[in-house]
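All the exercises in this workshop are built on plain-text protein records. There is nothing in a record beyond a sequence line and a structure line. A learned vocabulary of local backbone shapes supplies the integers on the structure line. The question running through the whole workshop is how a given chain folds. Here is such a record, shown just as it appears in the course material:

***
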Amino acid sequence: MDAWGEQYGEVYPIVGGRDGKAVQWFRKQVGDDVERFREIVRNYLADGSQFITDARHSIGNLQAQWARWAVKPLAGSGAGGALRSQVIGANAEFLQRGEQRDAI
């Protein structure tokens, strides 16, 4: 929570049970890879969207939208646009190779 504190100039206001459960959930997602978790938090804190900043980058929003920041950003893309960039890139690859993509 040091990065959050640096951004907001105060200690994160932890809400015991709710935030504790979220932290346990994060641990299940990344295991012991602390650096990976830090990378995801950096991606999250870099998101300047109105909704996220109004909520002051809460732990609850990080958990609720985990996939948005857990995707590794592509070079030159913002943290929030990483997933969209990867999907567009994957689709473009299929089109360039002329392959048929199976329906999901």
Confidence is low (pLDDT under 50) at residues 82-87, 99-104.
